[in-house]
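**User:** Everyone, produce a chain:

**Assistant:**
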Amino acid sequence: MAELSTRHLMGIKQLTKEDIDLIFNTADNFKEVINRPIKKVPSLRDITIANLFFENSTRTKLSFELAEKRLSADVINFSASASSLSKGETLIDTVNNILAMKVDMVVMRHPNPGAPIFLSKHINANIINAGDGAHEHPTQALLDAYSIREKLGQVAGKKVVIVGDILHSRVALSNIFCLQKLGAKVMVCGPPTLIPKYIETLGVEVSYQLDRALEWADIAMMLRIQLERQGKQNEVKYFPSLREYHNLYGLTLERLERLNSKLVVMHPGPINRGVEISSELADSAYSIILNQVENGVAIRMAALYLLASSEKIED
């Protein structure tokens, strides 16, 4: 059996193209499973997985939990807001207590970049990074690239523009790494205040004009404005107003039809309808947003299965 080159999924940066291809091929098999009348397989029947979410999440947490249950794993859900962390317990103390319950794998979301890597140096379980601050979100990038492959046949040679809050987005960084490894060309687009100064060193193009970027692209990946990472919630700091942002960088059906474009439209969610994308467009035939959600379960099943399998082989 083919194996991943790593025992953890920390970020796309640590994966090879062969790793990504293996995850995609495994996801193809699981996509078939989750579309059966009986959607469960016994692949991880003897595996216990702890979902450690130190940051609020709905979609990613539900997607991982569903993937784990489809694989017949035993699942422990941990929420930091209801935990001893609020009483001063350290991250390692918390995880060691959970590992004392004989957990085999940890899916972790944390507000601090590098937290999963720090954790991997202190515990023996496999770790999947479900998002660490504004650093990486590898399974989101994998499911995005997988969705492009499913829709357009391949990722290589495609032009992808990532639009929005690039500065605060872990999804953008992981997607840049993943898409480039698979041979796509990447452009980022947004207000100058939301484009990191270093971004061109990653080999991407930069545009501050949405219409020009859309003319160039085959795929538009829209990102939400992350007010919670910009300071006070609901306080706009990086541009004059949400209305002005929508006028300059919001994607609408009218805008696409004016360009006479057959663009594929994506969004990692949650969507701010009427800000980065209009409701009409999000629900249109241009959009593959719901395909991304379905593919997320298959990709996460594949990642969990491959990491658990490599661990068994090592043992």
Q: What stands out?
A: Residues 138-292 form a domain with the Rossmann fold fold (CATH 3.40.50.1370). The longest strand covers residues 126-132. The chain has two domains: 12-136+295-314, 138-292. The mean pLDDT is 90.
